[in-house]
Amino acid sequence: MKKRYWLFVPLLIFAVLAVLLWQGLGRDPSSRESALLEKLFPAFSLTTLEDSDKAVDASLLKGQVTLVNVWGEWCPTCKREMPQLLALAERGVHLVGVDYKDTRDNGQRFLDEFGNPFALNIFDPEGSLGFDLGVYGAPESFIVDANGNIRYHHTGYIKPEDIDDVIMPEIQRWQ
Amino acid sequence: MAVIARGRVAPPRALMLALVATVLVVLAGVVCADDLHHFDDPALQSRYDALTETLRCPKCQNQAIGDSGSPIAGDMRRYVDRALRRGDSDDDIRDAMAERFGDYVLYRPPLEWRTVALWAGPGVVVLLGLLAIAAVIRSRRGEQAPALDENERQRLETLLSRHDRLDNQDRSDQ
């Protein structure tokens, strides 16, 4: 009998492709690697939500590990995320907010209603800082180390289980 | 009777309304998608059109920024507009986008080690197919059908003659 092992080649190719495509199907298409990982937090010059006369820039993030959270009053998912952010603040995480494409009045009202876990909120009405951060929808969160480098990017909502599973380990890792 | 009469008159008017509504909806879509970025210089306009067709909206799964109504696509179109007016090259603009949103936004990903399989994959597959065809042709060349022995030859002849007979019968039937 002739050796006909090569007849199995198409089957093999099929199996490899099937595994590859199956993996692709299971992946969340909205989560992907951030282009800004390991890079310096982009330069900006904006005021704070709390005080329209107070100018802040990226040096604000130097000196300690910070969780930067991009939110907006217009964003329903941000409201659901607030309890998690408050819990993180309670555990001693340093949080800075970016009030993204919002008005001062609406931003203030949001914090009054849902609580304010942020040490400070950068007011970004045009979304210019958000654009430089590659934000394409709020909420998004970044972990920035003490030297101002972006170390972790969380697209979308921080779920309650993410606090212990993802966020706290990442914060401790970059301390 | 009156009801029936009204029933006869109403459809054309309803049809007109539906038609007008459809046209308005279509026009609204055109206006929204364009954001009215307009350049007096036709060269800039064509570069703008080309860029917004080949940059991918990061929020949407598969839409160019020129084709998407999502807010981030609008921001990106504004960036392209401003960058073109201040004289940035197409590559500058594409690099600036990829720096912020990742290679995801480039419909034509750069050729890197990471993307070699993506670029070379189709060529390799075609090449493998051609090699396989060549191998099959080569192995079949020179192969001959095994010769028939005496019994088989006789059987073939009877079958063929029977076939001819039936064929002739068919013709005479017609």
How does the SSE layout of this entry go?
The complex is a heterodimer of chains A (175) and B (174).
Chain A: H1 9-26, E1 45-48, E2 55-57, E3 66-71, H2 76-90, E4 94-100, H3 104-114, E5 120-124, H4 128-132, E6 140-144, E7 150-155, H5 162-173
Parallel strand pairs in A: 3-4, 4-5
Antiparallel strand pairs in A: 1-2, 1-5, 3-6, 6-7
Chain B: H1 2-34, H2 42-54, H3 71-85, H4 90-101, H5 116-140, H6 150-173
Helix pairs in contact in B: 2-3
Architecture overview:
Chain A: It comes from Kushneria avicenniae. Chain A: It is found in: Cell inner membrane. Chain A: Keywords: Cytochrome c-type biogenesis, Disulfide bond, Redox-active center. Chain A: InterPro entries: Periplasmic_diS_OxRdtase_DsbE (IPR004799), Redoxin (IPR013740), Thioredoxin-like_sf (IPR036249), Thioredoxin_CS (IPR017937), Thioredoxin_domain (IPR013766), Thioredoxin_ResA/DsbE_sf (IPR050553). The complex is a heterodimer of chains A (175) and B (174). Chain A is an alpha/beta fold. Chain A has one domain: 3-Layer(aba) Sandwich (Glutaredoxin). In chain A, 35% of the residues lie in helices and 21% in strands. Chain A has helices at residues 9-26, 76-90, 104-114, 128-132, 162-173; strands at residues 45-48, 55-57, 66-71, 94-100, 120-124, 140-144, 150-155. The model of chain A has no long low-confidence stretch (mean pLDDT 91). Chain B folds into 3 domains: 2-112, Cytochrome C biogenesis protein (Helicase, Ruva Protein, domain 3), CATH 1.10.8; 113-143; 144-174. Chain B contains 6 helices and no strands. The longest helix of chain B has 33 residues, at 2-34. Mean pLDDT of chain B is 84; it is low at 1-5. Classes of the chains: A alpha/beta (175), B mainly alpha (174). Chain A binds chain B through residues 29, 32-36, 101, 127, 131-137, and chain B through 57-59, 61, 70-72, 75, 79, 98-104.
Task: Characterize this entry briefly.
Chain A has 175 residues and is of the alpha/beta class.
